Amino acid sequence: MRLVLLGPPGAGKGTQAQVLSKDLSIPHVSTGDMLREALRQTSPLGLEAKGYMEKGKLVPDTLVIALVKERLLKEDAAKGFILDGFPRTPEQARVLDHTLEELKIPLDLVLYFETSLPVITRRLSGRRICGKCGKNFHLVNFKPKVDGVCDACGSALVQRPDDREETIGKRLKVYNEETTPLIDYYGKKGNLVRVSGDLEVRPLNTQLMELFKKKGLLRGALANS
Ligand code: AMP
Prior knowledge:
The protein is built from ten helices and eight strands. The longest helix has 15 residues. A hairpin with a 5-residue loop joins β5 and β6. By secondary structure, it is α/β, with parallel strands linked by helices. Helix content is 50%, strand content 14%. The protein has a single domain, classed as P-loop containing nucleotide triphosphate hydrolases (Rossmann fold). The strands form two sheets. A five-stranded parallel β-sheet has the order 2-3-1-4-8, sandwiched between helices. It has a three-stranded antiparallel β-sheet with strand order 6-5-7. It binds adenosine monophosphate. The site of adenosine monophosphate (AMP) has 17 residues, from α2 and α3.
């Protein structure tokens, strides 16, 4: 199954993608996670992206597009993928379409996480990530087993610099200006489905699995697992 998760920061795309990736045995491809990993490794890409990310701005299309193209060509993406946080601009969407057309692997669905502002603010202010492996948690909704400690690798949890209050407003403005045109773009193409990002992880997951079943997308997907 090939999915794009579209929606504002704090819509719960990353958390839902983590669960779906496990259920469907397909990789979760998050450009935000990949860029943060590049930053931890202090690679040239990470260093170039750093300033944009800290200010809540978008990293230039050329850098992100190259990153995604390379990732989608990896073997594990052949059976499907969940794109989270990409595409984020009309240019990224056009290049993605073109690339998938060339590879003859069209998207199955674009899930648009419609999310209200109070929920976005609550999610972003409570989000914590592992400083080492990047796994996401939430102080209330997705708690680690031990407070402040990553379940996966045992390292300390931290707040993302761009989740601080002063940057959240900027990220939402960028989302409204640069990413919301994609709702229309995919709506016209006919593969957009609106879901409620206000729902918690499990109820939304149940709805999504029902949707996949109804659309006949589960048979091949579950054979992968
Ligand atoms: P995210 O984890 O998806 O919220 O992304 C964190 C930050 O990474 C964003 O605020 C951007 O600075 C950068 N980023 C992630 N994905 C993209 C993208 N598709 N295009 C441009 N910048 C991105």
